[in-house]
Amino acid sequence: MREQTFVMVKPDGVVKGLTDEIIARIKRAGLKIVSMRRLKMDRSTAEKIYAIHRGKEFFKRLVEHVLLGDVVVILVEGDNAIARMRELIGTTNPAKAAKGTIRGDFGTSITENVIHAADSAESAERELPLFFSDLVKFSA
Question: How many CB atoms lie within 10 A of CB 68?
């Protein structure tokens, strides 16, 4: 099933110069980069991205982290793009992420894990329009 998903290189990934490597891994996985933008995120948007974690002890830490510097937001498309991106990035905790995954290779902590990707179709449908409303195609 052809899907679109949201991916974000977090400030720690941008500062470490990992954007090109992340893009290369996405392309090698056979996924398409439809659009990509580098920007400084505002608090309101950051809170919308992490809305599913509102009320949890780490919510504020996630929001504050993505406000530290530039992020790169990416619209990725491909067959089973959501699940494939989740495999590519690895588990949230880099210490438990498999070698060869983005977080396993480059992450340093649960917060500074280099990358965010939508974890479900519902998350992608909530996150993508925040940055790519003109390009989003959902099959509902």
Answer: 15
What does the alpha-carbon distance between residue 3 and residue 120 come to, in Å, rounded to a whole number?
11
Please name the helix (run of DSSP H) or strand (run of DSSP E) that holds residue 6, with its range, or none.
strand 2-9
Q: What is the pLDDT of residues 110-132, one digit of tens each?
A: 999 999 999 999 999 999 999 99
Fold of 2-132: Alpha-Beta Plaits (3.30.70)
Nearest to 9 by CA among 89, 128, 119: 89
Q: In angstroms, rounded to a whole number, what is the distance separating the alpha carbons of residues 140 and 23? A: 28
User: Is 121 in contact with 3 (CB distance < 8 Å)?
Assistant: yes
- Confidence bin at 82 (pLDDT 50/70/90): very high
Q: Provide the annotated active-site residues.
A: 116
